[in-house]
Batch of 3 targets.
Target 1
Amino acid sequence: MPIANDPEVSLRVADVADALCLGVLAQQVFLDTYATGGIRPALAREVLSQFSTQAMAAQFDRRDARLLVAERDGHLLGFAQVGLQVPQGQVPASRPAELERLYVQEPFTRQGIGSALLRQAEQAAAVAGADAMWLTPWVHNHRALAFYARQGYLDRGAAWYVFEDERHENRVLSRPL
């Protein structure tokens, strides 16, 4: 399905053949966002463990996940990953879905791709029976926090992203579907 801002960009459901490109795209976006002070061993290990081709391919084995991609001419520009599980409190909903990732390569931000992926992710969650969407962006990712506020997401409190011996504050955001 083409997006309104750029009819050459289309959205589709991802498949396992996308795992290589999804992993590389995720590594790039993650590092652009979170490695603002450079690369250190703990961060490098986290990126390689979360976004290897094998780790991304394993996402297709999950019955509770939906992966959507934005592409132009066979090139992935971004993706959204939705998990259909219930969080541990903080979200006022009976069947919430989690927007686990919404990553758009930097050259393609502010072109409507993130908004289109978010709408498709919300629709996929609603079709699966979810009544709300929640996510946990990093507290220092001001652009993402502003984006989700514009989309009607409300701040529900803090959550922590933990890897190795590091704790990073995130915000829990949600909105009804």
Note: The first strand starts at residue 2 and ends at 3.
Target 2
Amino acid sequence: MEQLFFYIFAAIAVISAICVISLRNAVHSAVFLIVCLLQVAAVYILLRAPFLAAVQVFIYVGAVMVFFLFAVMVLDLGTEKLKQHIHSQGGPAVVIVAAMSAVLGYYALKGSITAPLGEYNEAALARNTEVIGRSLFTQYIFPFEVVSVVLLAALIGAVVLVSRMKAGGGR
């Protein structure tokens, strides 16, 4: 039964990812990206990793997508400028991502990539959140705080750039 749900979630994730890159409206693409990220969270639930699923929903769907939609609305990028930016930057990245996806898909279908769920019992999976939390706030506290400061600086920089663009009418 889990395998059926996995195929359903994976199919919806792939279809919504295709919609993200094929739709012209940035807001519609963002909505389909939210759907894709929610499907990934559902797969995490199937893999018995509820902490990762919650982090996926809170951080990516909640915070990052809100910032993305906010940036799209505030910047109001013109269609021509956006197309020019995508065509000048996107070619090699699309080829690399497509090649990596094809290789991963081949190995996944071949059966070389498997999740070792059989090695863990339910008690070990229940302690997953506690182990991640302890290591995050003891061993990795400095990198965790550095990332938070970098994200704060990026947010402040984005606000400053947008306010200058709106006030000055350009760069």
Note: The mean pLDDT is 74.
Target 3
Amino acid sequence: MITNDTSISPLDRVQVLTEALPYLQRFAGKTIVIKYGGAAMVEERLRVQVIKDIVFLATVGIKPVVVHGGGPEINSWLARLNIPVQFIDGLRVTDAETMEVVEMVLAGKVNKSIVQLINQEGGSAVGLCGRDGSIVEARRYNTSADQPDIGFVGDIHSINPKLLRSLLKDGHIPVLSSVASDETGQAYNINADTMAGELAAALDAEKLILLTDTAGILKDRQDPLSLIRRMDIYRARHLIETGTVGGGMIPKVQCCVRALAQGVRAAHIVDGRQLHALLLEIFTDEGIGSMLIASENSCPI
């Protein structure tokens, strides 16, 4: 990992590149889907570094695809417009008025801001949402009979990766907001983790990486030092069943499990608050987060 720290000698810089060589060789030409959100998207210092790391991946021959949310920005605009913000079981209640704001903010303001940042750093980003090229067809999120209606919250019905494959082949970095429509054209707000996982599967990605505001999957949710660095999908399911994985981490782990079950080689839950989190997770043996694999018989670097 290269930094601008002038205290690092030229020899040390070359040594870093040499140590990264096996990873550069292994992942050259491979697709990595990155869910971008949390503090890494809000804090200026982290935002700039993540963008640079994404451009670095593309520069060394890896094919990154970025999927982003934008909850804080949505909340800010809803407040400006005096539209109530409500969540039920972690899902945003999305009536027609709220859906208009969600699409405006995610597919417009947030998406184009990320695209511009990537392009300023020397990448070639293309901003999209699930509607574009019919990449994602949505369906209404299926709530149970005893739950209140949460409006235009969607799930994934199908993925058409043709446009994304074309962009990746031509050296572009697709940046997708988590908005899609159903067969009638109705727009839906989709969980960005869910969209990232399904896109990773459809693109036959090498890795799915979820940038979060936690260290990863913990044995003890109160102890960051209890990080579980590696597990297969069977252990991941067991951790959910026993309550070790709870709260907002459940849908993230479930998203990883679904992606792995559909052929993604590895899924990572990584603390995006750490500088160079992406590069540390991809280009070092130990990584910094939790890596999930299909089974212990599969051994990706």
Note: DSSP finds ten helices and 14 strands in the chain.
